[in-house]
Amino acid sequence: MKRTITLHHQRQGYTDRMFNIAVKYGIHYKMIEEENANVMVFTLREEIEDVRTTEYFQELLCRIFETEPANSIYPASDVDVSIYTILLAFVDMMRNEYNDKHYREALKRFHDARHIDMIGSLPSIHKLKNGSYSLTPITHEQVGYEVISILSPEKLKGNTQAQSKARDKHKRAVYRNFDWDNLYECCNLYREFCDGEELYDAEQVFLLARNICGAENGKKQFLKIMNEQHSDSIFADLNWKEILTTIIKGNVPLASCQECAYCEECQHTENMLSTAQPQRFEVRKIRDEKYVSLEEVSDDLHAAFDRAISAQDNHVRIIKAQTGAGKTETYLQCMKHSEKPLLIAVPTHELKKEIYRKSVAMGIENICCTPDLEEYQLSEELRQELNNLYAIGAGAYVLKYLTEQLLLLKHHDSDYVNISQYLDNLKRSTRSTGHIITTHARLLYMAQEVLNSHEVIIDEDILRTAMNTNCVSMKDLHHIRNMGVFKGDARCRIEYLCRNRGYRKLHKIDLDKDEKLLGNLGNISSDICGVLGAEYVYITDAMVHYLSDIPLPSGKLTILSATADAELYQRFYPDRQFDFYKCKKAKYMGKIRQHTDCSYSSYILEKHPEKVSALYQTAKEDTVITFKGIEQEFHTNYHFGNVEGLNLLSGKNLSVIGLPNKPDFVYCLYGMRAGLELKKSPNMYVHRIEQGGYSFSLNTFQDSTLQRIQTWMLSSQLEQAVGRARLLRNDCMVTVYAGFPVEQAVFN
Q1: What does pTM read for this prediction?
Q2: pLDDT tens profile 566-600
Q3: Cα gap 464→458, rounded to integer Å
C-alpha cells in the first residue's frame, strides 16, 4: 500500500534550511498547516509492505531534515518521493557528517543497530511478488531472559521478484558497449543533462544517475557531464562519486521511465537504457495506439460494413476489426434486412454451426448450411477410401467419386442412403436462393453463379485456407515414377522434381485427364496431385515442399478479419482491386500479461522439458493453447491452428504458450508467390524489427517481404489464440509466453 510519513516542520526561521535540503536532494513533500505547527507530509512512491520498513524511512527522513515524527495522519498525495532518492540522500548526508574514510563504518553501525542487512552502503530492499517493498524480515527469539532480533531471509523464499539492476551477478554493467549517442537521440532528460540545461529537480538527476550506472563506463560518463556542464548547479556539491559508487555496489534497481518528467513526451520502454539499447528479449513500444469506447468501435464497424455492402463493383474489401468487436453480430443483423441473400464463409464447421444457431435464434428465415461429410455415418471401408483421396490431394475428385458409388450401391445400403442425403443437402444448400453459411474451404470451390447471386462475406482471414504448404517424400516420388501411373506432362513433372534441388517456379499442368488413374497409386498417401499441380516448390534430397494455391473467388468479396494484411493480399493477387479499412480500436476490458524472457519456440520447449513442466505448474489453473505436439503435456485440446473463431473460451483465463514459427522454406514459398525469385533459402538471424507499434528482436530475414510474411503468420496465430478470451467484453486474464509482442500486453 501507499505509505505516508509525517514530520514536524522546524521552528520559525528554520524554514529556508529545510526547504534547501528538500531542493538539494529532490525530496518532495506537501506542507500542511495545522493549528499549532506545520507538518511535512511525505508520500512514498513505492508501495511498502510492512510498518517496520515504513518506520525505517521515517527515521532516515528525520535524520536528513533534523526533525521528529509528527503524530498526524494524512492520505497519500500526488506529490511523492522514491525510497531510493531518500536512501541516496541519506548516504550523501552521512558522507558530509563523517569523512570519506569513516562514513561507511557509520552506515554499517546504523543498520546493525536496527538489525538490517546491507548490500554495500545500502539496506537490502526486496521487491515482493505483490509489487511492494520490504526490508529483510526479522524474528524474535528468547535467549535466556532476553529477547533478541534475528534476520530471517528464509521468510522471503518464493516471495520476491527480480528487478532491473544496474549490475549483473558478476558486478558487470548490464548494458555493455553502450551507445551514448543513441541515448542522446531518444531520451529528452539525458539530452538536457548533456546540453547543460538547468535541471531544477534533483530527483531527476538521481534518476539519471541510477540508470547511467547500468551502462558500461556509466560512472565516468556521468561525472564527466556533471563536471563540464553542471558545476554551478544547486546539486553540484553532492558527493556524486560516492553516490555513484553506492548505486553500483548497492545494486540499486534502474529507475523506470514512468518516474521521469518526460514520460508522456517520449517513446520509451521500461527504462532509458533499454529504450536506447534494448536487450535481446525486451519489447519496446514505439507508438501509442489511440483507443475509443467500445460503442464507437461498434458504430465504426457497422458503418464500414454498410459501405462495403452498398458498393456496386467487384472489389475485394478488407475490414480489419478487433476480435470481439461484433463482426458476427454485424452481418447477422444485415441478414435480417438485406434484400440480396448473404453467403457467409467461416473458418471451421464448428463455427458454421454456431452461426447458423444464432441466426435461427434471431428469427432469420430462408437460411441453410452446407453439410459436413464427417457427420454422415459412412462405412469404414468407404471412409478409408475417401481419406486416401484426400491424402493424395484428390479432394476435388471426392464428389465425382461419391456419385459413381451410388451407381454401384444398392438402394437399401446405408452408404447409399447417407451418400444420397449428403449430395442432396449439398446440392440444395449450394444452389439456395436464400442465405448460405459455409466454410472457407467450401467457398473456394463454389459455382460462380451462386457467388454472383449472393453478397459474399468472409469471416476471418481466408489466406491460410487459400494458400498452405505441404510436402511429398522423395521416396514416394521415385516409387510413383517407377510405377508408370502418370504419363505426359505429369510424368515430366515427376522426372523434373526427382532430378532438381532448391527453389523452383513451375508452370501449372492439367491433371484432370489422370483422375481415372488415381486408384492405381496403391498405398501411396502423399499429396501427389498437390505437388504435381504446384507452381512453387522447394526440393531437398528427402522431401519436396510446395505451396498449394487455390484462387480466390472472383467478383465482389467482403472480408472481416482481425489479422488480415492488406499489403500481402495485394502482393498475392495483383490483378484484383482491394479496398482496405482499419476500424477504430477500444481498450481491452481484460488484461494480457506477456513473458518475453525467451522465444518459447517449439524447439526450445522440446529441448527443455523442465521448462514445460514449470509452465504446466504455472498455467494449470488456466485453459492452455499451445503447440499440437505438446498439448498433452498441458492436458488441453487447444493448439495453434484449431482455435480460430472459437467462442467456447470467451471470458476464461487463458495461457497461450509458444511462438508458432514455421520452417524458413514455408516463408520462402509464400515469398515466391508474392513475386520473389529464390534459388536457396536466405539466412535468418536475429534482427531488431518494428511491427504493430513495437520494437523487438526476432530471428528473421533481411528481405522485407519475407519478414512481413513471417510477422503476419506469427501475429495471426497469436492474436487468434489470445482473442478466444474475448478480452474486449470480458474482464479476464490472458498470459502469453512468446517472444513476439501481442497488442495491449504488459511485458515481463
Answers
A1: 0.73
A2: 999 999 999 999 999 999 999 999 999 999 888 88
A3: 13
122 shares a domain with 60:
yes
pLDDT band at 513 (very low <50, low <70, confident <90, very high): very low
Domain encompassing residue 598: 588-747
In angstroms, rounded to a whole number, what is the distance separating the alpha carbons of residues 603 and 680?
A: 23
CB 503 within 8 A of CB 680: yes
- Of 423 and 484, the structure prediction assigns the larger pLDDT to 423
Q: Quick one: three-class SS letters along 621-674?
A: CCEEEECHHHHHHHCCCEECCCCCCCCCCCCCCEEEECECCCCHHHHHHHHHHC
Tell how strand 745-747 and strand 118-119 pair up: unpaired
Beta bridge partners of 119: 122
Q: How many domains does the chain have?
A: 4
What's the rounded Cα separation, in Å, for the pair 374 and 349? 10
Considering the domain architecture, whether residues 595 and 733 belong to the same structural domain is answered as: yes
DSSP codes, 714-731: HHHHHHHHHHTT-TTT--
Residue pair 514/528 in contact (Cβ under 8 Å)? The answer is: no
Give the angle 153-155-161 at the CA atoms, nearest 5°: 85
Give how far Cα 575 sits from Cα of 316, 455, 506, 572, Å. Answer: 11, 21, 20, 9
Same domain, 126 and 256: no
- Among the three residues 549, 575, 604, which one is the final residue of a domain in this structure? 549
pLDDT by residue (tens digit) across 721-739? 999 999 999 999 999 999 9
Which residues, listed in sequence order, are joined to residue 5 by a DSSP beta bridge? 42
Do residues 189 and 144 both lie within one domain? no
Residue 412 lies in a domain: no
Query: d(Cα 741, Cα 692) in Å, to the nearest integer?
Result: 9
**Adjacent-strand bridge partners of 282:** none
534/611 same-domain check: no
Report the candidate in 117, 121, 62, 61 with the shortest Cα–Cα distance to residue 91. Answer: 121
Residue 354 predicted with pLDDT over 70: yes
